[in-house]
Amino acid sequence: MASSPSIQTIGVIGCGLMGAGIAQVAAEADFKVVVKEMDATFLEKGLARIHGAWDRALTKGKLDASRMAELKQRLAGTTDYRDLKLCDLVIEAVPEVPELKLAAFAELEKALKAEAILCSNTSSLPIGTLAAPLSPSRLSNLAGLHFFNPVPAMPLVEIVKALPTSTETIEALRGFVTALRKTPIVAPDAPGFIVNRLLVPYLLDAIRCREQGLATTEDLDAGMKLGCGHPMGPLLLSDYIGLDTMDHVAGVMFDAFGEARFKSPALLKQLVAAGRLGRKSGSGFYRWEGDKAVGFESI
Ligand SMILES: NC(=O)c1ccc[n+]([C@@H]2O[C@H](COP(=O)([O-])OP(=O)(O)OC[C@H]3O[C@@H](n4cnc5c(N)ncnc54)[C@H](O)[C@@H]3O)[C@@H](O)[C@H]2O)c1
Predict the structure, then answer these.
(1) What's the rounded mean pLDDT across residues 62-70?
(2) Confidence class for position 3, pLDDT limits 50, 70, 90
(3) Which atom of ligand 1 is nearest to the CA of 92?
(4) For position 158, what pLDDT does the model report?
(5) Which of 83, 92, 135, 227 has a CA between 20 and 30 Å from the CA of residue 233?
(6) pTM score, two decimals?
(7) What does the pLDDT read at residue 6?
(8) What is the Cα–Cα distance from 149 to 1, expressed in whole angstroms?
(9) Ligand 1: distance of its center to the CA of 17 in Å?
């Protein structure tokens, strides 16, 4: 049984990069999970992403066949919000576009039971700005739950406390995150919370340096990896995050703070407009084959 008493069934909205990771780790921590996608094609792709991770673990001997069958059985997919009615906790992970998140929250307001906890995995939007479609009685159950990419590997989760979030909700989320064997920190409801407030200007600066010809992609990333002991360079990390997501996050933070360091560089916008979104599209600063960066793209 999952080891968080009040939370047993998890809903995840969006089964992309983050939603798939969240659904995967929740199932692995013995929660029942329902993932909701836009349509059958996206749902199939999202579930295949999770099943693929378990298949690879089976091949490597990290999972046995009966455990894998159990995990797959614990994970259900849907395209209908009504299938989330039994969820104790729902985590929204649709793209970082306020209109999409607000539309999802309007549907969740209708579909969820009154006591369900509702969270957004937004990287940058203040949680309070997502409250508009919710009834006043639900606001004490609204919070941010910000996972890091790749979800199965990253040990931190930021719990974001909005003004009306209750202490009970924060404590229930702390229990949930701990049950995932991750470490929670409670962050204030300001754009970018704690980690992205510091990380995003650094990544955008690296893209500006690349744009200005300071260094090649290879040297820039090697410089920060080897010179600062970072596990990966900033351009590789940007490709991992998704260049479209980076652009959206920069937009939200620039609007909020008005500081040039949060402005999305022209190069980032050009890459997104060209469909070069990083790992998810197979091309960004790097050329990708599946999850592996296999070469440098020309800029
Ligand atoms: N990429 C990162 O490194 C990262 C890290 C932390 C947080 N986040 C945040 O997580 C969220 C999701 O980012 P992502 O990188 O997973 O994006 P993504 O584009 O990989 O996935 C988003 C998914 O949402 C689905 N979707 C869109 N509308 C939907 C709807 N109405 N119902 C159900 N599904 C819907 C899309 O089909 C897609 O599969 C964003 O808010 C992002 O800022 C991203």
Answers:
(1) 95
(2) very low
(3) 11
(4) 98
(5) 92
(6) 0.92
(7) 84
(8) 26
(9) 7
DSSP 27: H
Could you tell me if 147 and 131 are in contact, meaning their C-beta atoms sit under 8 angstroms apart? no
Residues enclosing ligand 1, CB less than 6 A?
13-19, 36-38, 42, 46, 93-96, 100, 104, 121-123, 147-149, 241-242, 245, 249, 280
Grouping H, G, I as helix, E, B as strand and the rest as coil, residue 187 is: strand
Tens digit of each residue's pLDDT (9 = 90 or more) over 151-195: 999 999 999 999 999 999 999 999 999 999 999 999 999 999 999
Q: What is the CATH number of domain 196-291?
A: 1.10.1040.10
The residues assigned a catalytic role are: 123, 146, 158, 196
- Give CA–CA dist 256/122, Å, rounded: 15
Domain ranges of the chain: 9-188, 196-291
Asked whether the predicted pLDDT for residue 260 surpasses 70, the reply is yes
- 122's CB contacts (< 8 A; 6+ apart) are 92, 96, 101, 130, 144, 146
With the C-alpha atoms ordered 146, 253, 139, 161, is the resulting torsion angle positive or negative? positive
Q: Which atom of ligand 1 is nearest to the CA of 241?
A: 3
Measured distance CA(2)–CA(23) in Å, rounded? 14
Q: Quick one: CATH architecture of 9-188? A: 3-Layer(aba) Sandwich (3.40)
CA distance 133 to 130: 7
Atom of ligand 1 nearest to the CA of 19: 16
- Integer CA distances (angstroms), 192 to 40, 159, 198, 216, 237, in order: 32, 12, 8, 28, 17
Rg (CA), the chain: 19
Structure tokens at 97: 């576009």
Which tokens belong to 101? Answer: 């998140």
